[in-house]
Amino acid sequence: MPTSRPLPRTLDTWLKLLDGQLLPVPIESHQQVRRALADSRRSLRDIADLMQSSPALALSVMREANRKSTTLNEPAESLESALSRLGLKRTEELLERQPALPANEIPHALRQIQLISQHATQQANGLFAGRLARLWQEIHWGSLLFLAPLWSLLAAHPELLEVWQQRVLVKGEPAAKVEREVLGVPLLKLCLALAEQWRLPEWIIAGYRLLVNDRRMLAKALHIARNNQHPLQQQQHLDADSGLRRWLTQPANSILLANGLAISAHHAWNGPHSLRWQRLTGLYLQLPLDELQQQIHQHAAHSARQQNTAELWHPAEALLWPWDARRWQARPAALAPSAVHDWRQHCAQLLAQPSAFSNVLQLSACASQALQACGMRRVLLLLADRTHTRLLAQQSIGLDPASAGLSLDPQHSQVLRRLLREPGQLRLTPTNIAQFSALLPGALKALFPSEHLLLRSLVSNGRVVMLVVADQAGTAFSDTSLQAFSKTAQCIERALGSFANRGR
After folding, report:
1. Where are the domains of the chain?
2. Under DSSP, is residue 106 helix (H, G, I), strand (E, B) or coil?
3. pLDDT, mean of residues 392-401
4. Model confidence over 447-458: pLDDT tens digits?
5. For the chain, first and last CA: distance in Å?
6. How far apart are alpha carbons 212 and 37 in whole angstroms?
């Protein structure tokens, strides 16, 4: 994916760019904090609580406090202590310099990575803060700000998140190779350098130092964590390595574990990376894997309820999907000449006069093949009965074989009733998925775990006789694919009309 401007290629140039990068703040949060600072009745704790809704603002205050506190050796570990160091006047001045924008004008990638940080904070608070109550502030703010170097990176170059998702998560390219080609430097090394330059809390710096300089310790712990079925053997291995046991029990590891859980869940709950972090967290907390998974799923659901996830992806949504479903799929390649040829042949057969089909099954088979040839990866054709009280699966492509026997009652779905009542098309996107998802049958959502979906009525002689549901395996539709889908649907409708009028 092309970038908007050239990327730096060295650590020094990256640091210079990202250190000066201003992070936009949602205008609503900006105004709330401004009013609170002007209200003499508000305590520092009240102001800090208000700032939590804007991670970018919290980071700016922590950075400024630690940059200015030259007489103090230790960086501020919480936002409340950072506010105390800065004072209200300097905090107000900092707030005035912070750009305030409507949420929809802040780069999507930046809001997405901050949502991951907020999810990590919920995991940290739920899993660790109760057990380490005296350290809850360090756990809370450390887990929220751990990914702060990435906030600046994606504020400067928001397109990098999509590059990472497609190349590393979807295509499975080695992360180190992608970082070298795209950034010129290892990502974790850049994050460590920024965390040190900003004097972020020591637990954050310790986490990055571990990932950059001492991965051997982490690998040893992960090796023991794999044997989660035998906790007694795990404890024996830890007892035999006192250095590893001392490291594993350090409270600072809580923020690394929480962020590992949140980042890996961003792709899949049951992927290999997620399982590694779950097993390691289970070893840290001395919990069985199934009990830990139940807790982290509950914390994820709570996080999704607490945060504004409009247009953003929260892993809690995937807990409602089939366990092996994946949100990110490889982008469909441009149609090959052979696919274009097949599509034209199928459309010609659909448009033939008189009708080339002797029964509905033949027609629907040709229709589904035409939809596949035009770029749809998953297709379901549903035939309506005469009274519009039942929809029966007629053809399917790219779906679970169980879809062949699917039967839906439109009375239980407002969307299906509307599409059967009059011709129409519904395109689901990340923007409107929350609005319409609850109005679709669960069986249909299970077959199409996607935020990009097309549902369309197919009409014959002025009456809806069939519904088509299709997607491109979860990827966004291009203008070309939407046009091809529309043209194919029109061909199917003409074929339905010709078939209904045959012999007259």
Report:
1. 25-106, 107-307, 337-500
2. coil
3. 89
4. 888 888 999 999
5. 55
6. 39
